[in-house]
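Usage example:
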Amino acid sequence: MPTTNSAASKWLFPLLLPFIIIILAAIIPRFLRPYTIISINNIFMYMALTVSWAIFSGPTGYISLASAAFFGIGIYVTAVLGDGLSFLTVIAFGGFASFLLALLTGLSSLRLRGMYFTIFTFGLSELIRHSVLWWEVNITRTVGRLVVSADNITVYYAMLTIVLLTLAMAYFVNNSKYGLALLAIGESEEAADHIGINVNGLKIVAFAISAFFMGAAGATMATRWTYIDPSIAFNSLFSFMPVLMAIFGGVRRIYGQIIGATVLTLLADMLITTFPYYYNLLYGIILVAVILFLPEGLTGIREKMTKWRKRALVE
Amino acid sequence: MRILEGKDVQKYFGGLAAAAGVDFHINQGEIVGLIGPNGAGKTTLFNLISGSIAPTSGIIMFKGKNILGLKPHQICKRGLARTFQLVKLFGSMTVSQNILLACLFGRSGGIHKSEAQRESSNLLEFVGLSGMDNVIAKEMTIAKQKRLEVARALATKPELLLLDELMAGLNPTEVAQATELILKIRKKGITIFMIEHVMKAIMGVSDRVIALHYGKKISEGTPKEITADRTVKEIYLGI
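Running the assembly step on the lines above writes:
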């Protein structure tokens, strides 16, 4: 019966599938080896970074390279406060610290557009990294610090929660009038301003919201590394990977971002263990190939397939 | 009643005077045309009124309140909307999304999404684009894009509408349709201030015309008076 079929795929599927995945994700750690859990935690980390990055940068087209700054702030909040406070409080602190930093930098930087904004955010990450380093060298006189560690299962559940909250926020923003307004900003800021959208205000708030989740993710993941220093916490890889993963999967759709983060993390894991010498080479080739042939990312495959099918039908 | 009034409005780009002390006013319910050669400062004057650029000095009053220093989105919410010389749509969005955004953000009071949706289809019908709700904006002809931009401006519920060269690039049939649209908008009780180069059109619909040259007002009056004005003839009309 085609009618029930389409009804099922329209309603049941999108509602039921996430539900099943959440339940599975909640019980699965009992049955997995520690290594698998660590690698899932990695995937969660990049999911949180990629999806939160895309909340602001996806619709507006403002390519931010400040993710490392916000992620690193979260890590340092745990490193400094982790001793006295509960895990949950530290995570919240990490999120809010990044939120505030994004508000402050947003006020000064979001007048910049295109390339200038990207360079500014990259500079911001570097500036913060070097400031923290300077502080450690000159004030505390020890570079790097030990972090109170949490076990993998705790990190797993904390990261799962953060990923789910990030997804919920992304979904809410994308489907609200503010999501549409962010898209409008990406198309024409002047026109958006002239139809009553508070362009600067909206950009700053969206930027700060996306930073909140990065900070929270950083605060959680910090407990996994036991030792951190500025070059680990503010590694520029944390700025570049979310951009790459979002583009790889498909910036415009949340499931594209999820797929991008998952596939690239797994791919890196697999390549580094099977081809330790050619790892970067192979990784690069795959990235270039995907961007060349699928400019819309992996989510573009579906659209391409339907096009081919239509063409085949016509012929 | 004067809905818009500018006093000694000045804007200098370096040494260049785009507006060198312009005085002007628009009465409620009027259609006022703004003419002048290229580079006369017409669009600059619109940019100053809508808040896209800040003047060097002067006062601009809208409904009796100074709007100088306000941002475009604040001015829009007070009831002043505009279109652009080069159409500025949200190109990859659908026609209805373009209008919906203006309904949702452009008004001082809140509006429910379902109500906004209904109004957006009413507006599309008003400007003659009914049934095009789901068309991607940039895929339409330029004449239709201009209509959509007008509809989007109207969706913010303006009392004063600034039209920047609505007729540029349109063929004679489309010019006639655009003229008809302008008169229909006035019937709704919306005041119109328009920049135009198509003389036949602007002289036909305007109650009053202001002529600018090098950032200065050189003449003002009814279309008849303007076409008879010697300075305007020499500088602009070339007769």
